[in-house]
Amino acid sequence: LSSAMQSSQQKLAEKLTILDDRGVGMLTRIYNIKKVRRCDVTRVGKPRVIGEKGWGVSQQLTQLQKDKSEILKSLALYYFTFVDEHVGELLNNIDSCQVFFDITVNFDLTKNFLDLVVCYATLLMLLSRIEERKAIIGLYNYAHEMTHGSSDREYPRLGQMIVDYENPLKKMMEEFAPHNKLLSNALVSLQTVYPRRNLSADQWRNAQLLSLISAPNAKLNPVQSDTMPCEYLSLDTMEKWIVFGFLLSHTALNSEPAALSLWKLALQSGSCLCLFRDEVFHTHKACEDLLVGLRGCELSLHSGSMHRERRRFLRSALKELATVLSDQPGLLGPKALFVFMALSFARDEIVWLLRHTDNVPKKNADDFTDKHMAELIFYMEELRSQVWKYGPVIQRYYVRHLSGFDAVVLDELVQNLSMCSEDESVIISSFVNTMTSFSVKQVEDGEVFDFRGMRLDWFRLQAYTSISEASLGIAEHQELGKTMNTVIFHTKMVDSLVEMLAETLDLSIFCFYSRPFEKMFQQCLELPSQSPHSIAFALLCTHELCPEEQHHIGDRSLSLCNMFLDEMAKQARNLITDICTEQCTLSNRLLPKHCAKTISQAVNKKSKKPTGKKGDLEHEKPGVESTRKDRLLVTSLDKLRTALSELCFSINYVTNMTVWEHTFTPREYLTSHLEMRFAKSIVGMTMYDQATQEIAKPSELLASVHAYMTMLQSMENHVQIDITRVFNNVLLQQTQHLDSHGEPTITSLYTNWYLETLLRQVSNGHIAYFPAMKAFVNLPTENELTFNANEYSDISEMRALSELLGPYGMKFLSESLMWHISSQVAELKKLVVENVEVLTQMRTSFDKPEQMGTLFKKLTSVDSVLKRMTIIGVILSFRLLAQEALRDVLSCHVPFLLSSIEDFKDHIPRETDMKVAMNVYELSSAAGLPCEIDPALVVALSSQKSGEARTAEARDVKAHFCMFFFLLFIIVIALAAALFTIHKGSIEDRLKEFLALALSSLLKIGQETDKLSLIVQESPFLTMDLLESRFPYVLLRNAYHAVYKQSVSTSSA
């Protein structure tokens, strides 16, 4: 009891736990002092008072006096980081108690002791690398002295420590001389663990390590091991124990063969070790400097190939493990140890490669470059997700194992123990009672388990039973230690799965190797076979570090995750673009313009005419590319689709991920990139050349867009994205003048082309409108046009244009056309005002031919009027074609909606307010339906309406304005309705007056009498009865009969 009390009074377990945790925190702080430069006081890093060019000691005393409070505040955190005297005291206590260390028996005690030694050595080595350590201590003490009148009491010791540990390893070798035996005994206990872990890939392969299918009959048997916690212990950690431990207790290398064997084996594994994060320790160079005669540089020449083969083996082993467990998750119970062993082995190899990539001369670059790293990381993440997903399965299994097997075995051991003190017996009995109280119902009820107290008690019991004077010595009862180590592992499977994953899967070191990290990612994207695993790099960014480091490390993780997902989406977008380009090319071969050659060959073959010159290849028909003579034949399109499916697997792997309280959705990255590329592709497929004014025909563009959309729709087979949303966003933006990025759309391009190219050539007399063909046709001129107007304005092309632009785009086209009409009307108004007096006289003298002839000669700018009227007529004719095409398209897509709109339009009562009627007309016009009053023209002309009250003179101007329209009935109908709607005049009365004027003029000149019937037919405001009252229809019938007889005689002649 006294010995147990003596051990409990020392509190070795508690002190080791606290000092190890404190050591990690101090390492983090010292690392940040070294790495971060000139940061604000509120951030982790060097204080602002330390400049780049000096230590600050040479500054003027007045400046130091002024800044003393700031110096004390900013340097206190770093100054007291260096104050620590507890490690040496604890080592002395452990040495005086003659503690027994064996990693296979008292695992927790031995591991924490070795961690403390390595952490202490690492701290002092990192401290010696801080160039400003003297400045920090000196400045703080100087400011303290000026503030309090005396030096800090820790300053002499700290100053002496800085001087003594200029070469930390040499000093520690002297300091650890009294602890050599203790340390070497702990290290030598690794001889049963480390050599077994440090095997070659061939040895692993021969032993069928980590394989669940090598022994099918034993698949359900639990994995058993006497050294359970050592199986997943980090190899990197053991190598640091061995190298640093034997450097500090180097005498054991000469006296114990086992120590020398471990030392050489550790040196063979690599040439550098990780001190902390990206700070490394070059082992071979240090050994040459410190230990003469123990050289090891030549031993690492082949370590690169050894680790490369290990990574190759682990890739296949982890893939097999993940595949089997995903199919049979129940095996996670008995084979959980395999999962954590696999994660630990893979993590060690990744960390080794990262460390040596940046810190070893590249004698063999292939050994230090791994283009398949993504696959290994991916299967590690796959195993982690399975442990997370099937955690309850693991809990159920080990709760049963603890209560039904471990408790029984431990109870038998307790019964056979001799010389067991009461305190020790109580602790061990409590273990048995705790385990027997478990039941599966607790798991099913969602009860939270917590075995931290039990594990801490076992840690304390190890400390009690490991001292030399213990009544129950664990050295004599090693079976108890091994059994309890297994029990502790089983308890961790119940309540500490998250901590176990963090221990074996922590790859947060990638955050400090940004360049190799990004390089591995780029290599992954370059290899199609590795692209399915590219999501692993983004998943690595989800590992969190110290919360105080969120400012710089968290932001770096966020930027890396964003960059990885963005690059993956860009790669997928580029592949999709290439596939769509191929599909558009194939679709283009199906256009009617490409069938001429095929028809020509068929006709020549039937008439047995020569098909062409000798050696000419026969025209290849569309669809030939799908014929395969050999299934091994792979086309470029096949390769693109394969690469796309592989990459989409990675993008679709997770729905979202959380990184430092930010949520990332990989599919949204792809969606946004597809939207931008689809928009650019549609505009690019117009092939608009501003210099030559060339543009793709609407039907050809529509075929290409359909091919592009068909390919994008197939994306839903690869990744779960809403491609309909992409279509809606992009195509809707293309119906506007500019898209969301301010770039021109197909609506603006085609509107500009039709207005500035096609219709302008009509005004110039190179193109004419043929009502019978409902198209514009090229006229024979000296300078041939570069395009055929009929191929851009016939009904099929206008329908294709309406399909592309939609109602919104066609409305914009109409508004642009009306704007041009309004500008022409404005000029015509000026001419009317200029001739208003003559027009007034002509209005009252239309039945006096001689006076009308005299007045007509007084009119000015008659040719200008006719030219502008022609322009208006051309624009209105084109708009009629566009509206008719839009109506045809909508009748196919939304026939019920279109019929409802048409019903609204046809049943507007005559007494309806004009504002209400205009709303219905606007709706009808947007659907392509003809209206009595054109709302777009009304809006365009309304902008020219003067705000002044109408006068009698203004009314006369509007009335005489109609006289210029008697040859162009379309202009008469449209403009008359719009103008008199704006100026609230009687449309019927004005058109009746125009009809009377037109009749008088036509009868006097004796020609074009048939045009009047067309005006009446097209106008909703005129009737045939009115025409009959003014002009007997028998005259029109005779005129038609005369025209028919003339055409017959001409054709027979």
From TrEMBL:
Keyword Plastid part of the UniProt annotation: no
Keyword Transmembrane: yes
GO BP annotations listed: cell migration; cell projection assembly; cortical actin cytoskeleton organization; neuron projection morphogenesis
Basic and acidic residues compositional bias, start-end: 613-625
Keywords: Cell membrane, Cell projection, Membrane, Transmembrane, Transmembrane helix
Family matches, as InterPro entries: Nck-associated_protein-1 (IPR019137)
Bilayer disposition of the protein: Single-pass membrane protein
Subcellular location: Cell projection, Lamellipodium membrane
Principal subcellular localization: membrane
Region entry Disordered, spans: 602-625
Membrane spanning residue stretches: 963-982
UniProt-recorded name of the protein: Nck-associated protein 1
Organism: Scleropages formosus (Asian bonytongue)
